[in-house]
Amino acid sequence: MKRILLAAIFCLACVQPSAAKDAPGPEAVEFKLRLAPKMATAPNREQLWKAIGGNGATASQKKCRLVQFLDVTGARIRKASFLLRHRTKLDSDDCSDPIPDDPKGDLTLKFRTADAQRATAEREAAWAKIGDRKFEQDVTCSAGAAGGACLERAYSLSAKVDDAKSPHTVGGLRDVYPNALGSLAKDAKLDPGCRRVFEERWVLEPEASTGLPDEIELAVWIRVSKSGKKTGEPLVAELSFKADLGKPNAEHDADALLARLIRTLDPSWLAPGSSKTAEAYDCDHQ
Fold this sequence. Notes:
- With 286 residues, the protein is α+β, with helices and mostly antiparallel strands.
- It is built from seven helices and nine strands.
- Strand 5 (132-143) and strand 6 form a beta hairpin.
- Helix 1 runs antiparallel to helix 6 (250-264).
């Protein structure tokens, strides 16, 4: 319990954005809790909503998405601190539909680093000026040693393009994002490999009077084969909520919820690890 209390105190200090001098910092902070996959079951979701304090709030299930992480041989995109993600919505809520033959969806290139100055400097790159752009701070809480809670902070800069096909080569990527990943050969092939998951999502929308973040999301990932079939049990679960730093009280509400959850959650609900993406890249879970 002492470790959890220390983590809760630390979280209030760690979420303050820091960036290069005289440069605009992140526009939002996204808080993420790595949860055991068992928390996705209906009874456990109800317990989670109660722990959050969302009694009486509207909880809805979102459409299933196919999420793919494209990379070249040797995962050199990820090793360069970038991620290339393609997401396609399916018609079903429970991810029972087959994958479309030629799906279009949103394509996102993301740069993620623990260094705020590196993330801020990357905003000037040509690729970072394309589509729907975001600069956010990520604060991830996961299970630590001896029942404690660990916190990890990072900065993410992303550019999203809607209604896009998945590119097959780095050259195709640069047709969308100019000059991106300049160290890679233009003809280098992009492939998701095993990094394909179905994502099921539930969203809790509390009333304004509760003092909670506007939207709280629970996401579960299940690995998918190339033929479009689930290959096993849920891979990872994550609870997330966001604070828009330009909105009054948003940061305070999100900080308070994170501190309370770290202090009160059953330790068995938390899972070890960092990002969901790290799990997707870990092909030992196939």
